[in-house]
Design brief:
Layout (H helix, E strand, L loop, with lengths): L1 H19 L5 H10 L1 H30 L7 E2 L2 E2 L1 H18 L3 H30 L15 H11 L2 H4 L5 H4 L7 H30 L2 H7 L9 H8 L3 H35 L18 H17 L3 H26 L14 H18 L2 H11 L2 H11 L6 H23 L12 H25 L2 H10 L1
Antiparallel strand pairs: 1-2
Helix pairs in contact: 1-9, 1-14, 1-15, 2-3, 2-12, 2-14, 2-20, 3-4, 3-12, 3-13, 3-14, 3-17, 3-18, 4-12, 4-13, 5-9, 5-12, 11-12, 12-13, 14-15, 14-19, 15-19, 16-18, 18-19
């Protein structure tokens, strides 16, 4: 529910930007337009890391389930040499399918979605009808048996934010969408509502479906499930359902991988439009409108990350952190968007000015709840954007200069302060500041940085530099 609330707020900010500025790869290009090139470089780097980690994570997760029928693909939680070769082949095949455009993508995704929703709904019905025990909800410690911090850490660490990551797909592809003002909100929230409803029903069915005797004997910490729903189905003698669930566990990440490759290529296209990558990466195929060069770049970098990270869980944990960082920057862009004197489009939601601040605060909390182990690594990777901007300044001192750097330094300062609180907080840090005061501190600090970011973005949009950069970086 926490992950869904955060994602719903994020969705509103994405829709506002997608409707008023329908651009391919807009989630990278919007911050460049609204908050300045330095913020564009930072979010470009964040989304580049997110995109390049996302594709191999889906491929790795898919093969973990294929391993049940083809043993030897995964060994000790990581891809074997054979699994790595097959994962690379899958990524290449799905890249080729994306080559032919968004219409083919939507048709294949529609077919996969029917399967992804139908099988979970059938699972809910059968688990509730066969072995549902409502006493499980109060057994073994009840709600949050390991405390509130453990529950909050799961929002990022267990992949919940990652599982809602498709919320931005419609907005990112708004430049290729007919009538974004109508179709973008409908498509975004129908998909989100369906996903949330299925997730919630599955969790209720799972908690009640675990045999009470097993739970009473082992507790939640004693359940060691590799395929939780399939194993619960086996415990309830639903062998055919277990096999169907294992098939679905391959189809679902396959569908996400297919759509994710298309989305990631638009992210890389947007990064290239912001001049962080060579110009040829931003070239669009005239007949199809597809950024095919960006597809190839995504393929090459995804293979590189597959070679370096072969564990699905490590990839997912890292990706969730970058999702939250990207959401925070988008929130500021959406909040300042209506102040742009050059904006001609009619706003989709005038109330976005009230939605954006809590979205930024929640994004900051999600990053903090990921824990110190994730925060320090993400912060280290994030700081790479500073020398990257310095290198870009050498090519174009007219627009990329110290003044431009100052317009976006607020987010760099926010990440550093967040890292400092994480180091002394209770989520994997030293514990010098205990719970819940550490989360309260993060919320207050995030609100202050949103105010700073909003003012800096509005000042950038009315500056002469903004007009000079409009035709170059946006």
């Amino acid at each position: 529910m926490i992950a869904a609330l955060a994602t719903a707020l994020v969705a509103l900010t994405y829709i506002e930007l997608g409707v008023t500025r329908p651009l391919a790869g807009g989630n990278v290009r919007w911050p460049s337009m609204i908050s300045g090139p330095f913020v564009g470089v930072m979010i470009g780097w964040v989304f580049f890391l997110q995109a390049t980690i996302g594709t191999p994570s889906e491929a790795s997760g898919l093969l973990q389930y294929v391993n049940r029928w083809w043993p030897g693909l995964v060994v000790d939680g990581s891809l074997s040499s054979l699994g790595l070769v097959l994962a690379i082949f899958v990524v290449i095949a799905f890249t080729v399918l994306n080559w032919f455009g968004v219409v083919l993508m939507s048709r294949i995704n529609a077919m996969v979605t029917v399967f992804k929703i139908g099988v979970p709904l059938l699972t809910v019905v059968l688990l509730v009808a066969t072995g549902f025990d409502s006493s499980n909800f109060s057994s073994a410690g009840g709600v949050a048996p390991y405390g509130i911090p453990g529950m909050l850490t799961a929002v990022t660490g267990a992949g919940l934010i990652y599982s809602f990551g498709g919320i931005n797909v419609g907005a990112v592809m708004a430049g290729e969408t007919r009538c974004p003002r109508r179709n973008l909100p409908i498509g975004t929230f129908v998909g989100f509502a369906a996903a949330f409803a299925v997730y919630l029903m599955l969790q209720i069915a799972f908690v009640g479906g675990v045999p009470h005797g097993v739970l009473a004997q082992l507790g939640w910490h004693g359940l060691r499930f590799d395929s939780p729903f399939a194993q619960v189905a086996l415990m309830l003698n639903l062998h055919w359902l277990a096999q169907l669930l294992l098939v679905d566990s391959v189809v679902s990440p396959a569908g996400s991988l297919f759509l994710g490759i298309g989305t990631n290529s638009r992210n890389i296209f947007g990064i290239a439009k912001s001049r962080m990558l060579p110009k040829w990466v931003a070239k669009v195929h005239e007949r199809s409108g597809i950024p095919r060069h960006a597809l190839v770049v995504n393929l090459v970098v995804s293979v590189f990350f597959l070679l370096g990270f072969q564990s699905w869980q490590d990839l997912v944990s890292a990706t969730g952190m970058f999702f939250a960082a990207g959401y925070a920057i988008i929130a500021v862009a959406a909040g300042a968007n209506l102040k742009d004197p050059a904006l001609r489009a009619r706003p989709w939601m005038r109330g976005v000015r009230y939605v954006a601040p809590p979205t930024f605060v929640i994004s900051g909390l999600i990053m903090y709840w990921a824990g110190w182990d994730e925060v320090w690594l993400a912060l280290l990777l994030f700081l790479v954007s500073v020398p990257l901007f310095a290198l870009m300044m050498r090519k174009d001192r007219k627009i990329l200069n110290i003044s431009t750097f100052r317009s976006g330094v607020w987010f760099l300062a926010f990440m550093l302060v967040l890292g400092g609180i994480s180091a002394i907080g209770s989520f994997g840090g030293s514990g010098w500041v205990g719970s819940p005061w550490d989360s309260v501190a993060v919320a207050v600090v995030s609100a202050g940085f949103y105010w700073w970011g909003h003012r800096a973005s509005v000042a950038w949009m009315v500056s002469p530099q903004s007009r000079a950069a409009a035709g170059v970086y946006c």
